[in-house]
Hints:
- It is built from 6 helices and 13 strands.
- It is an alpha+beta fold.
- Residues 8, 30-34, 213, 217 line the site of aspartic acid (ASP).
Amino acid sequence: MEKLYEGKAKILYSTENPEVLLTHFKDDATAFNAQKRGTILEKGKMNCQITVALFQWLESKGIPTHLIEQSGDDQILVKRVKIIPIEVVVRNIAAGSLCRQTGLEEGYELPYPLVEYYFKNDELGDPLLTRDRLLILDLASEEQLEQLQSLALKINQNLQEFFASCQITLVDFKLEFGIDHQGQMILADEISPDTCRLWDQTETDPQKRVMDKDRFRRDLGKVETAYQQVHKRVLERLA
Ligand code: TMP
Ligand code: ASP
């Protein structure tokens, strides 16, 4: 196996089949474009298993993903795709950069899901894109942009429902998409507490309810416990 790419949270390897890659999930955690670094014990395994469970759930709802199968505790086999260099963020409740950039109060329920596009470019710090910037940079075509939006909204609806049944509020999350060898747009990357904001509906305290990477970003403590709780609720729900 040849290492093709090492990112902040995952490593991508080739396999004997040129159309199949292996993704290894790391325990490493970073925030603020890797200015902050740490380790979250067993994160690789937990994020891998959460991603598998959620991707299988989404597949059952008609959303195509890159997942082929889980091949180990912290690794999956995926279809090779050409990643679209856009981070698609969907927000249901104001938090994070939306609050910082607009002054909206954390916890404000948005009147409709907000879909945003960020340029997947570490050197530039993943800046927020406008529709025209995205088209001028040729990151996606108009048709692909429509498709990104409709897939993101459909995924949001399904994930919101799913997490609600685990007594978790899906505040916001980030998605990445790729184009497979047949030219189809499919969901790629991961969906985990690293890439979502998840609030525990059984807690009202604004710090205690945080079940995602914000515990690491904001030094809230009990990071592992939060990931374990999400892992437990998601896997039990699908058992
Ligand atoms: P933001 O509020 O910092 O823009 O983040 C929005 C959502 O996207 C949040 O659920 C965390 C996720 N996210 C990532 O998955 N990767 C990133 O690099 C960033 C900045 C956010
Ligand atoms: N994953 C990003 C990084 O390291 C940011 C984040 O999730 O906050 O830098």
